[in-house]
Amino acid sequence: MTSQQLSPFELEIAKLIVEALKLKADPSSIEPEAVLFGDGLGLDSIDALELSLAIAQTYGYQLKSSDPEIKATFSSLRALARAIELHRTK
């Protein structure tokens, strides 16, 4: 898998992002290493809250803003997928 190819789980998370945030984007077009917030996908703090809720409902992983790793977790689709795989309860 090259750095630009999405793994099946990364594609699943990309679909969750697009659906939860009602983005007009093809989930498979989200670059796995691209920045999610600001200049990248253009997400903001409200999107982070909505996405955190969708992740908690879907995977049982509670993302908390107080977590020292939260910026790294939300840094890219690939980082987010890795964190969910590590911490998911469903």
Helices and strands: which structural class? mainly alpha
Which segments are poorly predicted (pLDDT under 50) over 5 or more consecutive residues?
none
Strand content: under 5%
Tell me the CATH superfamily.
ACP-like
SSE order, as H and E? HHHH
Mean pLDDT: 93
What does the main sheet amount to?
none
Radius of gyration from the CA trace? 12 Å
Number of strands: 0
CATH architectural name: Orthogonal Bundle
Number of domain modules: 1
The CATH class assignment is Mainly Alpha
Q: Would you give the CATH topology?
A: Non-ribosomal Peptide Synthetase Peptidyl Carrier Protein, Chain A
By DSSP (H or I, 4+ residues per run), the number of helices equals 4
Summary of the model, kept short:
The protein has 90 residues and is mainly alpha-helical. It is built from 4 helices and no strands.
Summarize the structure in words.
By secondary structure, this protein is mainly α. The chain contains four helices and no strands. The protein has a single domain, classed as ACP-like (Non-ribosomal Peptide Synthetase Peptidyl Carrier Protein, Chain A, Orthogonal Bundle). The chain is globular and about 30 Å long. α1 packs across α4. The longest helix has 15 residues. The mean pLDDT is 93.
